[in-house]
Amino acid sequence: IKYHDNYVFDNGLIPGIEYSIMNGKPKEIRHSISKEVMTLYRKAIEDQKDSADFAMRLAPLFETRPPNIRRLAIDIEVYTPNRGRVPDAERTPYPVISVALFGSDGMKKVLVLAREGMIYGDVESIPIDIDVEIFDSERALLIEAFRIINDYPLILTFNGDGFDLPYLYNRALTLGIDPDYIPIEAVRDFISVKHGFHIDLYKFFSIEAIQNYAFGSAYKEKTLDAIATALLGEAKVVLEEAISDLRISKLVEYNAKDAELTLKLTMFGGELVWKLIVLIMRLAKMGLEDVTRRKVSAWVKNLMYWEHRKRGYLIPNEDELLSMKGEVKTAARIGGKRYAGAIVIDPIPGVYFRVTVLDFASLYPSIIKVWNLSYETIDPPKGWCPDDALKEVRDESGNLLHRVCFSRKGITTEIVGMLRDFRVRVYKKLAKDPKASDELRNWYDVVQKAMKVYINASYGVFGHEKFPFYTPSLAESVTALGRYVITSTLKKAGELGLKVLYGDTDSLFLWDPDRKALEELIEWVGKKFSLDLELDKRYKYVAFALKKNYLGVYENGKIDVKGLVGKKRNVPLLLQETFNKVIQLMTEIEDNPSSLEKVKENVKKEVKELYIKLKNRDFTLDEIAFKTTLNKDVDHYQKTTPIHVKAALQLRRYGLPVVRGDIIMYVKTKTKDKVKAIQLAKLDDVNVHEYMDAVKSVLTQVLLPFNISWEEIAGGVGLFGFLGNSTSKRR
User: Which helix or strand (DSSP H or E) is residue 585 part of?
Assistant: First the structure.
């Protein structure tokens, strides 16, 4: 346990809460809690009187507003002779040509390095509120940037750990700047600033719990452009030239926009992201720079450690815990897992109209609470628990897996259960309270989001081998009880005449359900399992292809796509565009045969249009390029050479340096390697047959549920003649 964490645990400190220093010791500043909130708190713990003290300790975390800290977003641009190449942040061979600095106090500044032959461009296009300073010395430019950085306690970047800050630091040393004048420093495994704090928003938004639970998978790619587009409705400036070739006006516009988007990601929605970070700090008992860079397992670990110290408990030894609680009784269906996971009901491919989705609210956290599941309560040692307080855990087949002690509340049960109840019974209600101000409702909405992030991610960590409280028997019990609940509910739904089309972990898709039967099922689940089964969403129709692959269309025409190949980011732009057009056409389908025929004809038109483009080579290389990140240096690929690595090796043979982290753009060709890096390819090299195969794999998933065969589409536009014998040979 790190020293600074021990200090927090031993002194019962809560990061993100205000303190005053009294006689050299920190004293928490208490804020009053409204009567209305206290009434809701008391109602929430009516059935948990033994947890009243814990509940009251939680209250200040959620009722104290976060501090308003001045912050500065930084983005740098570096000269590079090779387009698409990220300069080495350690060796820093090239000059910093631009630094954009945007402050929460309204400051907007771009520092630009004057270079020989530089063209100013359309200076009038630069927004009037942006100050542009031009330097004839890179050294002077960096010193001015450091002066401004020193004036802000909180620095924001996007991938600042990986590039911007280390580049600035190492480049400053290269230019002979005294290290004492450089405000940047390496701290353990990240980069910080000496006088304050640094949040790398790339690291924060890359945390899966944040992506999936806080923002509902609104962004798929973890790039500034993708995240800003999804959350802000704004995108990066699109460039047609290399950064090194830009006119000053365009360079300023591009650089400034990146810094602006970085700042806005902490300002939008009433500072939602900043408030979320502070709340997670308080929950996880973890410092600002740690909580924004660590996975959710580290958050849960820190809270568990903190609570153990608070209660005077010994933190168990990992090996000892595993020897006592490591036995599992079920076999995993997925390689690499030790026990059986969630149940998934395979769908029957097809299109189903009027589909209702029921969702078990926080299924696994609720199971932890209801069944008192915790590392110390599962399979207790002999003599630790009275026999009459032991209850059996059985799976969906009735097999006895483990026993749980109910004579004392488990620490995991108390933490997860209390957070779940506060979210459902207190903060979801307060977030929708019409009598509250907009500011207050916004705050309570962030509170319930933070709780959702925490509780939905808390159960899985006990099944991870590197988690200090790794308890396979506990993790196995949670998933086994989940399967038991789902299968029991499925059986009951059948008895009530409800048709279940598909089920995935904690949800059921019902085909045109009877309202009365639906209400009866929800009531039965509440009585039988003490769990909440809720109406989640309604679709105009759902088209099922395979397990975890479906297309849903809401009544308002909005589309919900899950697991389909065409949505993946490495699919070429030309194919993505056709996929999106076909998906949009699918929204026009109504519950009648003529509607399907009409859509089928329109799909044929789209595919024909793509086919003609490919046949006539009416495309740019950028439109048909695949993009894949080089996850390790090319020399480290020994056994196999993936197609993007072949392209990277081609670049290296031509003297173009490629390193881990580079995005390799390539096209499929008729050459010996069957691939060429985009920098080396010509339109005549492109193997259009390969792209038609790619179109087939992208669209077949969409067409399958509608009983439309690829042959029907391809034959309708004469693709077989186009593909010729090469297709049959490959078959």
Answer: helix 573-586
